UniProtKB/TrEMBL annotation:
GO MF entry, a single one: lactaldehyde dehydrogenase (NAD+) activity
Similarity remark: Belongs to the aldehyde dehydrogenase family.
SUPFAM superfamilies: ALDH-like
Protein name: 3-sulfolactaldehyde dehydrogenase
Domain of life: Bacteria
Residue span(s) of domain Aldehyde dehydrogenase: 16-473
UniProt KW keywords: Oxidoreductase
Function noted in UniProt: Part of the sulfo-TAL (or sulfo-SFT) pathway, a D-sulfoquinovose degradation pathway that produces sulfolactate (SL). Catalyzes the oxidation of 3-sulfolactaldehyde (SLA) to sulfolactate (SL).
Amino acid sequence: MATQVAGRKMFLAGEWVNSDRIIEVRDPQDNSIIDTVPAASAEDMLKCIEAAKEGAKIAAAMSVHERMEVINKAADYIEANKEKYARTIAQEGSKTIREATKEVARCIQTLRISGEEARRIHGETIPFDQMPGNENRVGYYYRVPIGIIGAITPFNDPLNLVAHKVGPAIASGNAIIVKPATVTPLSALLLAEAFAKAGLPPKVLAVITGYGHEIGDVLVTHPAIRMISFTGGIEAGEGIVRKAGLKKIGMELGSNSPVIVLEDADVEEAVESTVSGAFWAAGQNCLGVQRIYVQEDIINQFEAAFVKRTNQYKIGDKQSESTDMGPLITEKEAIRVENLVNEALQKGAVLLTGGTRNGAFYSPTVLKNIPEDSTIAKEEIFGPVVLLFPVSNLDEAIEKSNGVNYGLQAGIFTKNIDKAHKAIAKMDVGGIMINDSSDYRIDAMPFGGMKNSGLGREGIKFAIHEMTEPKLVCYKLSNSTFSS
């Protein structure tokens, strides 16, 4: 018997609408159909953009207190329905119910911070009389919304990463069109539901579901879109840059994050932190720990403890509170990770634990003796695989950490403040965590990377800066104004 599902609608121009075509949303755990969403057409996207033009005017005209009220009401709605939101995240994606519950809590926090930052979009006065002949001029600048923002979001944080784009956009008086990941659209639609219930004016927010090759280019290339905010892979990011034209670009493109563990580190603390950082959301995490550089004097101790803790991870049903790790987002992704590991093994890497696949599930895997020419040593794995490397000292660890084309975040474990500060100064990353794994983040901090890890910064205050621009005001006063 065919699975019966209700079918969700997409949120277009303030209305919930269907399409002639649908996309099946499947649970990666067993590939069962859990719902359907519309497969929007290019014409749907064009209609959405036309509505957003009016939505941008409406959003810009909203007072700060109106923006704050709507955002906080949306957060209240999610908080009142947090179990439904968590279950949806866990069902359509890779996260366990415990991981999904934490994502919902972070989404609420993201929106609350957005509401607070709406009141802090400041300008400043400018002393025009710093230049001779301008003694009778005074002025200032203030920040204004840029207009319509196009947001393209990934599957790995299907609610909170959408909130990281929607919250700042609305806080700063913009309209926003969200194109969520095709495999995880339900959480983004639930976010739209929260804003609709909160009284957000129609046409300010749209969540349009569909295939990237059909609607993505329309969103990216349209001249009315003033900014593209994208979270995803480097190849897709490069494609967007080539197509976008004259508009702002904000991108978070992932990484293969390094963590350094020095001989004076608390090994137990480092192991617990890096195991969690490596296998959260089945390793499908842009901040996930991928490369660990351990000083030679403690490498054997660290390796044994790391493998032991990894083997304690419980893999299974995402909806069970006792499960530590679920499947990858699709079996295709699990096969991709499997192939990366097998390539490294064929070139001489040593498997310490894991390395097995069952459908979309891939066991937590630890490798050592990884050849430098293996793909897994240079590129983002985006799966539950960790690479262990011995190093003789901090300088070698920093050099190897920097020896890739990514630079999102890093971690270092040490009790020596001088060594910590040397790593801070020398590591080519957007953020460095001291005595924590690379996988640490709060939603208020600036978030983004160097090199191929992206452009610009997220984090509410910093995203608002990207989503606004300064407008200058200068008054030329009569000369008598300043005369005695």
